[in-house]
Amino acid sequence: MKKIYLDNAASTMVNSEVLNEMLPYFTEKYGNSNSLHEFGRTANAGLDLARERIAKAINCQSNEIYFTSGATESNNWAIKGIAESYMDKGKHIIVSCIEHPSIIEPCKYLEKHGFKVTYLPVDKNGIVSLADLLHNIDKETILVSIMSANNEMGTIQHLKAIAQTTKEKGVLFHTDATQGIGAFNIDVQELGVDMLTISGHKIGGPKGIGALYIKNGIGIEPLLHGGHQERLRRGGTSNVPGAVGLGKAVEVATRDITINAQKLKKIRDYFIKQVLDRIEYTKLNGHPIQRLANNANISFGMIEGESIMLMLDLEGISVSTGSACSLGVVEPSNILLAMGLSENLAKGAVRFTFSKNITKSDVDYVVEKLEAIVKKLRSYSPLSKSKFDEFKNEKKGE
Predict the structure, then answer these.
(1) Span 278-300, mean pLDDT?
(2) Mind listing the domains of the chain with CATH numbers?
């Protein structure tokens, strides 16, 4: 059976260059990076190189890069660490309503401990309004956190404008760039962000490793205690092979941004056109243009995305109905509901995320199987076509 993986927003295959870079740190350079002997110094040199690679990719100083266990830890640290460090100035935090749970849940935690959190709405394309942001910043606001690009429907935010707005108000700005790194150019100096989250396994790196960029001069309390690693800010023995892999993955992903984006956009647009043209009652979710080059989130009217996903899996095709971190949840996507989709359309959404290895013949195979599956599921769907009059009033994909 043919195997086609279209869930690259959830995780990616480790790049061969990355793997080759990591292997010696398991078998030859395996010392503890805090040890003073040769093995330790060699391991520490690997950490230094990884830090330098990431710093070069996003245009910051290497001592502004802190390694973590992944994006979830980085996001928790950004939210909780700033809250604890700046609580004397104020207890108000602003995030968008479509953030990853690793942003939303720490905010809910802080609300139980006396903080106020504003969850900004988004428009039908998933874009945060600058006017809404400006309206909600007050003298108590200490942090704004808006993701660079949404993991579920691919919309890219106006980061530079958001950062300029927060800077003018004297408020720190953090962005979760888990989906943004390697997808488009991210220059923290040009954008003006104060903190930025990176994850390894979304860009051809290993799982269990991430980083948080923290601009020099920003005070932030440690999330983990128990060691002096990461310049006293993140306790725990360093994951040297992971950090080395992350550094190389960031280098490779940013090196090949242009050529990868061009190829991904071409194959993604071909897929979207085939699906919308050949399958009735379908709708592209997210911004039609300002979106990740590898992301296509499509709602299929009258059926559930979960059923489509399971039947595609039987055909060797791997997709997702939303964020990989919320698998098993049968409720409609909160992100799609926040964008104004009906509950039925939100439940019928499927996310297809491509890699550079996907070919036109792969897409043709997927569309062929998808068309047959949708037809079969709709043949015994209890939902009536009359419930989807919205398709009559808007062009497909808008």
Answers:
(1) 96
(2) 4-11+257-380 (3.90.1150.10), 16-255 (3.40.640.10)
